[in-house]
Amino acid sequence: MDWEHRNVLITGATGLLGGWLAKELVRKGANVIALVRDGVPASPFFSEGIEKRVTCVKGSLEDYFLVERALNEYEVETCFHLGAQTIVGTANRSPISTFESNIRGTWNVLEAARNSKLLKALVVASSDKAYGKGKLPYTEDSPLEAKHPYDVSKACGDMLARSYFETYGLPVGITRCGNLFGGGDLNFNRIVPGTIRSLILGERPVIRSDGKMVRDYIYVEDIVNANLLLARTLMGGRERGEAFNFSWEAPLSVIEIVGEISKVMKSGLKPQILCNACNEIPEQYLSSEKARKRLGWVKEWGMESGLEKTVEYYKRMMK
Fold this sequence. Notes:
There is one protein chain. It contains eleven helices and 13 strands. The relative contact order is 0.13. The protein has a single domain (7-181, 217-249, 283-300), classed as NAD(P)-binding Rossmann-like Domain (Rossmann fold), CATH 3.40.50. The chain has 319 residues and is of the alpha/beta class. The radius of gyration is 19 Å and the shape is globular. The strands form four sheets. A seven-stranded parallel β-sheet has the order 3-2-1-4-5-6-11, with helices on both faces. It has a two-stranded parallel ribbon with strand order 7-10. The model has no long low-confidence stretch (mean pLDDT 95). The termini are far apart.
């Protein structure tokens, strides 16, 4: 499917995935409409001038009529709903604002999509956190057993999306991804950008947990490709109402990912292990077998190549 001249709405366009996705769709010739709440100058969306090549609708997901106007006024055919409060610690400190953006924001997008006469595909970003503490690796048939605020907010959005397919036939697909990393992530309390920044500054990286927590990691451009592939599939009338896991299926502990970054950056600095993280699940990782078999998705990046490109981004940024 050719993206040229297609009208595409992205929520969360100033975030890590949203910025990369917007850039790729612009490169492919799409007419991108971006829902933008805050102006974040250091975000690639602004620092790389992406906002000058797209149509920006300023406002928040919590404003239903703004979302409905964006979909209808710009005759959107495909929507990527990526906008969310994505930080676990922030959700623990401020659950209500997280629920407002992640749950209300999602039902606003779904309801506006239901009332659209032109929308052909809606991709909703869920998370591996929606599964809670379950049998590993998670498959798409695993129950959603989230318990903590961020995890619950993503599970709710996930279930809302599936309910709009089952009840209204909305052409929706759901992504559940491992931990994304890549240039442009400004949340430096995350382990990858935080470790890279510390090592660039010549400081010991900080691990908030005991370092033994195990997670999936995946480079952002692989998830850009996954989103585009799922959207094309939905527009072709297939896999509607389905959820798909996307990960490298190569889980690492926090200490191991810090080691991988240190190796790429040729640093001998040892991490500080604080052991003060709370409300986090000890082990989480995914099976992507369904995405490989039913979508034909394949990863294009490896850990070393993804980290090398990410490190180069932050070196340029921090100059």
